[in-house]
Amino acid sequence: MKIRRILATAVAAAVTTPVVFLSAAPAFADTKPAPASTQKPAPGDEDPDKDMPTLDELKAAVALAQKEYDEAVVDLDKAMTALKAYDKPDHPLQLAATDAQKTADAAATAKTAAGEELRKAQKALAELPVDATEEQKTAAAAAVTAAQTAATEAATAKTAADEKLKKASTDLADAEVAASTVIGLAQKVKKAAAEKLAEAEEELEFFEEIGGDCEEDDSIKVELTGPKTVTAGKSAYFSLRVSNTSDRTLENVEANVDAVRLPEPGELIDDETDFSKRIIPVEWSSADNLEWTSFTEEFDSIEVGRLVKGGHYDVKLRLTVAADAPAGRGVAFSVGEYDDNDGDCGIGEQFAQVDFGILAAKTDKPKPEPEPTPSETTATPTPAPTTGGNSNTTQQGGSSNTPVKGSLAATGANENLTQLGLAAAATVALGAGALVIARRRKAGTNA
User: If you ran DSSP here, which 8-state letter would residue 393 be given?
Assistant: First the structure.
């Protein structure tokens, strides 16, 4: 699909750039372009949102694909009808073949009869008595000559009739083959049109699922903080604050949180890559939801509810990296949204993320610890959340609240989530202009 290819391009551009893994978030604070010798954009590393189709364009594509499919169906029906028409006795080619067959049959009968007359005449001439008169001999010879002429003419007529029958039969067969070829082509066109229609409908459905109709605005602010490192197999705790920065009360506020393990440097990522094993499970709790709650298909976002002007909502997050996960890097990210049930909905323009290192799980046999160094023993406090544009990012392990310059995608809790989630993480880590995030909507909410 085009949209997924656009997202996959963003992912590939992000995860194949070494700076993602070699630099901390402040590396992206400077908006000045790097020199040409050091800054080489990856292929397709342009603004994905520039090529992202609009809702109207997707609907137009569906309508066009439907029209082409309907025309293909009509053309196939016409081709089938044309082929069946050749079986009808009154079809011109069928009539010509039938007439030619009759003529050929008659010519064959005439040739047979002429041949029989010739044998009779030859036999009569051969059986003349020795005392036959000259007149009798002359008459018998003339009869043979006449029979020979008739037999030759009958043979010639039969040859002509056979040629005419052959041509009529060939014409009919060629026409049927041509009609069958047209049917084959029409079937291919119909299949291609059906695939195009299915893809267009899937594009539209996917776009509607990811909330393409909701505008981005700055009504909701999310702040995300957490540790610099997370050990595989152990839980790590993060904090999320959702704030209403608008001048009105917002209804049905939700927060979406995802976490992923980033690909290794140089790892090939494309639209066929399965990202499902890279998702890091996230649980949440709050003052009015004390138990740790996992995201499910039914409850796939943090339901904040009504949030008054200037109000905020605090959430605790628990991330658990799989015990067998290798050492590497990960990222947690969040965005807020609201739906006022009157057609007014929005997705937070500001996006928060926390980058962290992933430490491999410790084995049963601990290795001797190396001598500590000042950098390893000196604790570094987690930076406080900051706000502002792309220049106001924080160090890895802190939080980053970055206004989005593209469209925020949303999806249900399905396989699209993994694709979009990694796209969001990798793209934000790279500091790309267009942001794609997995926005998971609670079942039953009116979008």
Answer: -
